Amino acid sequence: MRFAQFQSRNPIDHVSRALGQLDRMGFALDSISVRQSQAGLSEVKIVFDPAGKLSAQVLADRIAQLRGILAFQHGQVS
């Protein structure tokens, strides 16, 4: 399993866009969490199985490029 985590001032929009990328790439969603953090930001964590044809790095790059994404991180779930 892999994860993508970020902060957002507009989590509904960013979660929708990130899940759209996940779906288009054929990856399986394991879990998603959204919680309020400091300074009016929401912290989003998406856990997924990169079972598609493209790599998890490609998904990470696409999410990180979304306008308004802050503090992006990704990696292997430990």
Write the layout of secondary structure elements.
Blueprint: E1 2-8, H1 11-24, E2 28-36, E3 42-49, H2 56-64, E4 70-76
Antiparallel strand pairs: 1-3, 1-4, 2-3
The CATH class designation is Alpha Beta
Order of helices and strands: EHEEHE
Name the structural class.
alpha+beta
Question: Overall pLDDT, averaged?
Answer: 95
Unreliable segments of 5+ consecutive residues? none
Count of DSSP strands? 4
| CATH fold-level name | Alpha-Beta Plaits
Radius of gyration from the alpha-carbon trace, in angstroms: 12 Å
Task: Going across the biggest sheet, name each strand in turn.
Answer: 2-3-1-4
Helix content: 25-40%
